[in-house]
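Study this pair:
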Amino acid sequence: MARRRERAKDKKLRRENVPGELEHASGEVDEVEASIVAGAEGEESSVDDAELAAEAEEAGAEAAQRESARGGRASRRDRQRDTGPKPQGNRVLNFLRASWAELQRVQWPDRKQVAQATAVVLGFVALAGAYLGVADWAAQRVVDFII
């Protein structure tokens, strides 16, 4: 375990495109996975799954010890996630605070993602319009033939 920590310190993983705490609220697991992917650079790992599982068990045991040392209390971050706006006070202000907090957690798309999504929508609209135009033309011919 100590050997692995020393290797990790020596390598200094790159942490590009790793979402910050407010940018991605789905949990610490996603942040860890993103940092692993960002630092791997497509290279295969020499660490086997059994070693990783053993390290995960050790980390879980250490976390359980820390929590029991605190008297079973949740961390400040966990308490903040579990608690919503306070029920007392002005309901409109509570709503605005909760809305602002939710907007801080939204993962906003960048310019490239917006352009791709817009192109997909416009392409689908063009295809649907062409299909409906052909269907209308065919239906009009059938009705004209019957009349």
